[in-house]
Amino acid sequence: MFLACFQFVPAIRQKLLIFHRINGYVVVVLSVVANVGALMIARRAFGGFLSTQAGVGVLVILTTFGLVNALYNIKRLQLEQHRAWMLRTFFYFGSIITLRLIMFLSALIVSPMRAYYSVMSCANIIFILGEQSTYSAYPICIPSNVDPTNVQVPVVADFGGNKAEIGASLAVPFGMALWLALAMHAIGVEVYLRLTPREHDRLRQISYEKQLEAGMKNPGSEGLVVQRIGDANPWVANGAGSSL
Predict the structure, then answer these.
(1) Alpha-carbon distance 93 to 5, whole Å?
(2) 12 Rama class: left (phi>0) / alpha (psi -120 to 50) / beta
């Protein structure tokens, strides 16, 4: 996310285009690695509930799709679509930060109720608390009673409790926070794109000029524009546009 911030600084795009390009490829590679890692840990992260796994999967699909579209459009010199898909991609990635805020606030809200639980294995609780603390708080995990690797124990969600209960207080709202944050960011980026039509039009005009100079067949509409995949009226270029 830190490197991606530089991609949206106008001065860097205008005066340090080589840095913008190289940094862009680095960001894409790191994003793909991050997505692979997210899929690997989704089964265990914050309880590994189905809501969490599904949310992580959707986030990975959305960001990967956005990166592919952004790369395709820049290769076709369709700058306004490249901008739009990069904004979408990193708005989606930004939901990771928002979900933490929602998760933390939710943990503080549900903890006093002591009415929400997360299921953990005895082995996991022992790893978190140690044997003696686990056997004291959860006697069912004592080896003479059960096999600790096969028994699941309900742990109350309490941000002020022991480490296992703190973990439960974060795991319980994680899936909800992920979906809510993702929805907020997905809607937010579309609102932002519709509030900046002049920048879209400016970049499309520049795209037209660059595509015309490159000898492309459909200058102004070489990328994934609505004229190519929908029934919109043909796009008509203005006079000479500004440069980047």
Answers:
(1) 12
(2) alpha
